Amino acid sequence: MTAWQDTNLEVEFAGVRMRSPLGVAAQAPFAPPSISVDRMVELLLKHVDEGAGYVHTPYVNAELAHPADKLPTGRFLRAETKLFGKQGMWCTADSYRIEMRLDAGLRLVDRLKKAVPDGVAVIANIMGPGADPDAWAEHAAKFETAGADLIELDVSCPLPASALGAVESYVTERIPEHAGVLLGDIPALTAAVTAAAAKRCGVPVGVKFSPETGFPRLVSFAEQVKDAGAKFITSINAPLSVAPPISTTAGVPCIRHWTPIRSRLRWVPGLAICAIGTSGRSRSSSLGSTRRRLGGWWKASMWSSP
Hints:
single chain, two-stranded antiparallel ribbon, globular
């Protein structure tokens, strides 16, 4: 065993012990019928083998099975930059087609929970039906029963905001079945959903925020979901559009964006924060590499307000 493997990285996040603050965030493209549950379990366990302290499911909606006539529409587009070289930029325009369905999601949680070692949390990322608090609570409870250690309410997927009629839905607060950020940018509706899920579940419930919320609304919003029973927030989901990294940061990692979010949310004590980022690589080996290079900043990648 090498020195980095001997290092104790254990943290407690929202009351749940994890062997490491590094893990795998929720994913969109790897969802049945594009990929089987067995294959998804195999891929996520590779990250666990490299030291992940937690794994998320893809976002899972409340529909039982994926409709045969609504196959995923995602495409990998070629992107090339001087820094990263050739890589595939994944694009889709319809969240409904790429969301994981309930049956597959519950089987995934069950399989993962039985396979991961002690100290590795399984986090269910769920998208409930519209803005119905009771339906969200029922959806969340199914994943607790399946074995999820934490429930993450995904009210921030940007794709529904690009759908026909999205602006009218947002303005009138008649939130569609596949809500995403149309729900998650309306604090009162999100707080009601959070309260219902937190009351129903015995495991910690958290809310995944959208970058579209912005500051200073972010602080007020965090206070509201905390008061509603949320034990953590996740920062952040994807924005409504993403430019290639080289054009916006000149190839410099966007670590600086995490610092002001963390600082501002210090004003909401007692709420744990999970930060999402990427190294530009999706291989499980990159997680092991990150563990070897752990320093002070990475210790803050899963951070709790004092």
